[in-house]
Amino acid sequence: MTAFVIVECQKCGGLSVAEIGQKTKMCPYCGTRIRLDKAKRLASASNAREASIILRKLKEKAAEKR
Ligand SMILES: [Zn+2]
Q1: Sheet holding 4-8, edge to edge
Q2: DSSP single-letter state for residue 25
């Protein structure tokens, strides 16, 4: 069951974990309110621990591109 999604901030491109059921989520990087129905979902996870692992992997991937 999907409980968490990893979303991309539309303004700064920063990745963060959001809980399913939330409508908005504050970007931890730039403070923009991300609308979860509009945001790009990069991955989903069934629990917070899994979500944080996926988030870390996605950030590592993003860092490699630079
Ligand atoms: Zn942002």
Answers
A1: 15-19, 4-8, 40-45
A2: E
